[in-house]
Amino acid sequence: MEVNESSDGPVTIIAVKGRLDSGTAPTLGERLSSTLGAPSRRLLIELTQLEYISSAGFRILLLAARRAAESDGQIVLAGVTGKVRQLFDLGGFLDMFRICSTREEGVAALR
After folding, report:
1. Burial class (CB in 10 A: 0-12, 13-18, 19+), 63
2. Residues 67, 111, 37: CA angle, nearest 5 degrees
């Protein structure tokens, strides 16, 4: 898994590439935790290049969403498509996150 961080104004963008599973989830969890350390953080997690997500990956996203809510922050997911979208749907996670089609839509939703 590869994680890249950038920003677009007040929005922090974390782009995830590859597989998010029990072996890689802790790395993303640490990154999200440090990013969400500041209050009122606006975070876009871009999953356009994510190939697979396991239950460990979903757990990390849920923990990040909880942490964001506790610190008056916001999280939006972008680029949830194909097989990854099917896994979100099967797990009932589509209704748990605000999901935008593109990075641009996600950034606009967080402004």
Report:
1. middle
2. 25
Beta bridge partners of 100: 78
Supply the pLDDT for residue 31. 94
The tokens describing 96, both together, are: 């748990």
* Closest by CA position to 55, among listed 99, 95, 21, 5: 21
29/74 Cα distance (integer angstroms): 16
66-90 residue pLDDT tens: 999 999 999 999 999 999 999 999 9
How many Cα neighbours within 13 Å face the side chain of 19?
5
Residue type, 28: L
Where in the chain does DSSP place strands (E)?
2-8, 11-20, 42-53, 74-78, 98-100
